[in-house]
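Would you be willing to look carefully at the protein I have copied below?

:::
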Amino acid sequence: MNQRTWALLGAAMSLLPLSAAAEGTLGTKRTGNIEIRYAPYKPDMDSQFALPAGCEGQGPYSRFFGDEDDGLLLFGFQTHLMQKYGTLAAGGNIGYFSVSGKAQAGLPCRPVGGGVASSADLSPDASEVDESSLRIVPVQGEVSYRLTIWEDLVPLVPVVRAGLDYYMWRMGSTSGGVAKLEPGQSASGGTWGWHYALGLHVLLDYFSQSMAADFDRDAGVNSTYLTFEYMHAQIDDFGSSTSLRLGDKTVVFGLGFDM
C-alpha cells in the first residue's frame, strides 16, 4: 500500500467511533413512540362568566376549587409516518384530571350574566353546598414533527404538535351523585376543541450510550427523551358561548420513548 492508501485507511478508522456512537444512539428501527407527561392545569371555566368589577379571580371554579393549578396526567402513543427529514408522527393522547373542594365563604361575588344559563347556580353560599368534585378526561388526536436529524451531534430536538381534542367532564358531590346545574340538567358531558404545542426534547441516550444500547436490547426502547413543551389548548366547542370552557395555557414535561 502506498502512503495515500494508508492515509485514507487511517481516516476511515478514525471515523469508526463516531459511526458506532451514532449506531448506539439510533439503535434498532424506529416505528413509534410513547410518552408519559404531566402539566399544571386549571380549566378556563371562569372566563365565560361576567363578574362585577373588583371580583376578578372569584369565578365559580375559583370559589369551589381555589385559584391554584392542579395536575393533568397525559399518556400518548404515536406511529411514525416519516423519518427521512426528521420524525413525522400521528397518534393520540388520553389524560386524567381530578379536583375537589367546597365553596369558599366570604366571597360575595356572583356572576351577573353571560356564560351558561345556570351561572348563578354554580356559586351558592358555602353553607348550602356539599363538597364537590370535577373530573376531566381529555382525548387528543394529533400530528407531531420532531427535528431529529442532528440529534446524534446535538442532543436537543425541537418539536411541534397540533391536533383536535374532546374533553369529557363530570361534576360530582360527596354523596356520590352527579351535581345539577339546574333542574333536569345533569352536570356531565364533553367539549370539543384543539391544541398546539412547541417544545424541546433532550436525548438522554447522548449522555450514556452504553445504557441506551442495553435498554434497546433488553426492552426494545430505541431512544429516551426528557420532554419540555408549552401547550395551548382551546377547549370551548370552537368558540361556543354556552359550552364549558376547559382549555388552558401550560407547560408540559415528561418522558418519551422511541420504540
Summary: Strands lie at 32-41, 70-82, 87-101, 132-146, 156-173, 180-182, 185-186, 188-203, 223-235, 248-258. Residues 3-26 form the longest helix (24 residues). Confidence is low (pLDDT under 50) at residues 4-26, 114-127. The chain has three helices and ten strands.
